[in-house]
Each structure stands twice: as C-alpha cells, then as structure tokens.
C-alpha cells in the first residue's frame, strides 16, 4: 500500500497538477492539506472520476484537509483534533482505510513569532501529542502524516542561517516533534534516508526550487505496527517543478500488506 501526503496549496488552483500526479503515481491513499476551499468547493466529481473516494474538511480561504483512497472508501473516525472545542480551523482528519488508520494533519505555521500565531502553534502541538499518545499503541497500522510545519533538525534544511527567527525551526517546535517521536513513532523518511532526508518544500521566493534550497516539513510518522511493514519511502520532487505547482512536493511510503513473519 502506498500512502502519500501532499500540501496542495489550493486544491482547485492546482487541480490539474493533482490529477496528473494521481494518474502518474497512483497512490492508494493520498492525504491533502491546505485545500483553501469550503466543503462545497471541494472538487469531488473530478477526484471521483480519477478513481478516488474522498472525505474532507474544508474552510473558506485557508486550511482544509482531505483523505483520498482508491482502495475503498475512507471511514471517518475523527474530523477535528480533540482538546479545544472552540477551535474551528480545519486542520485534522482521521479515517480507516483497508485496516490502516490514517491521520491527515496541517499543523499551524506559527509565524510571526512571538505572538498569538506561535502560541496557537504550540497549543495545537500539545493537543496533537496528547492524541497521538493513544494512537501509537493501537493494535493496527497507524500513519500520522501531513504538513507539520516543523524542520526537525539542521539536516532537514538547506541552510538555516536565514531561517533562525522562523517558527518552523524554533526550539519549542523541534522539541514538540521530538516528543512525538519519543512516544514510539517512526519518522519514515528519516528511517529511509538517515543521513540526508529529501526536501519536501521549496519557497516561491529567491529561486528556491532552481537552487534546490529546500526544507523537510512534510512528515509521515508510523506507529510500531506500521513501521514493521515499512518497505520504502520517498518524495516525488519533480512535481514541484511543474507549471503552477504547489510549493510542496508529495512525500510517500510503501507498506507491506501484512505484518512480517
């Protein structure tokens, strides 16, 4: 089973790119973030014609998450992250597909900092850590994937000197990600590429793509049952180079269909 995560940066704006990628790579499950579309604006018909069932949580102008599947309709288990009933931002969606529980997340960016946006980022991370503590022990494969808006280490960025004040690299952000891993989650891209994980994001500014000045902020975390099935992981970086591309590229994993003997 191939499971991918892709911050599409506007699902309708990038629909042609999305459909081309789905046709070329045919992930079994695709998690999308930053839909920038309300529930009614989600392109359900086009995605269904591409061979995918879909569930989604939209939001006007910003945020929004979706889970697409070509191996059976996703069964939604949660449409928001627990811990703050007043939080109405569409940033978390969870569904079961073919025996795998998939959490699709769009963690807040947190800029500018200091300020309320960074405070919200850290509070959202605390809620994620609390929820993930229950998921990591589930007796089935669980994949928590999406745009975490965290650069975990200095090896996950081309050059951090111009990013020192950015919320993605702050000690609090990195500590929160490390606490997730300490629960027992496996960072799939780091597992596959221990020395130099591939980038997943390149800014539109300063010719970042042309210079390969990238960052790794899109992650697929696996609980022990999923990690035991991990066969491969990677990034479809060429997608970033297409016309009208998102500033992210899809990241993916391959899971074996059964547990190892």
UniProtKB/TrEMBL annotation:
Cofactors that this protein relies on: Mg(2+); Mn(2+)
Regions annotated as coiled coil: none
Keyword RNA-binding: no
Residues binding Mg(2+), per UniProt: 7, 34, 147, 149, 247-248
Keywords (A to Z) from UniProt: Hydrolase, Magnesium, Manganese, Metal-binding
Site keyed Important for catalytic activity: positions: 218
Residue positions of the active site: 106, 147, 248
One GO process term, biological-process aspect: DNA repair
Source taxon at top rank: Bacteria
Gene3D superfamilies: Endonuclease/exonuclease/phosphatase (3.60.10.10)
Pfam family name, one: Exo_endo_phos
Endonuclease/exonuclease/phosphatase domain boundaries: 4-248
Family: Belongs to the DNA repair enzymes AP/ExoA family.
Name this protein carries in UniProt: Exodeoxyribonuclease III
Source organism (scientific name): Brevundimonas goettingensis
Gene giving rise to this polypeptide: xth
């Amino acid at each position: 089973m191939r499971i991918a995560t892709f911050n599409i940066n506007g699902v309708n704006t990038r629909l042609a790119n999305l459909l081309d990628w789905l046709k070329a790579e045919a992930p079994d499950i695709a998690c999308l973030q930053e839909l920038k579309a309300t529930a009614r604006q989600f392109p359900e018909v086009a995605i269904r014609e591409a061979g995918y069932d879909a569930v989604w949580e939209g939001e006007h102008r910003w945020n929004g998450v979706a889970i697409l599947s070509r191996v059976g309709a996703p069964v939604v288990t949660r449409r928001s992250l627990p811990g703050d009933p007043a939080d109405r931002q569409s940033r978390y969606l969870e569904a079961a597909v073919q025996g795998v529980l998939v959490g699709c997340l769009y963690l807040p960016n947190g800029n500018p900092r200091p300020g309320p946006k960074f405070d919200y980022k850290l509070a959202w991370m605390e809620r994620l850590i609390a929820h993930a503590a229950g998921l990591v022990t589930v007796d089935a494969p669980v994949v928590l994937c999406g745009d975490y808006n965290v650069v975990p280490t200095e090896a996950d960025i081309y050059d951090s000197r111009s990013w020192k004040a950015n919320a993605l690299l702050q000690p609090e952000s990195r500590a929160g990600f490390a606490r997730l891993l300490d629960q027992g989650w496996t960072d799939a891209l780091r597992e596959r590429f221990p020395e130099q994980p591939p980038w997943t994001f390149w800014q539109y500014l300063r010719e970042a793509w042309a210079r390969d000045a990238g960052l790794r902020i899109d992650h697929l975390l696996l609980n022990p049952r999923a990690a035991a099935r991990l066969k491969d992981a990677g990034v479809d970086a060429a997608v970033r180079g297409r016309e009208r591309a998102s500033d992210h590229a899809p990241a993916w994993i391959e899971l074996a269909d059964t547990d190892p003997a």
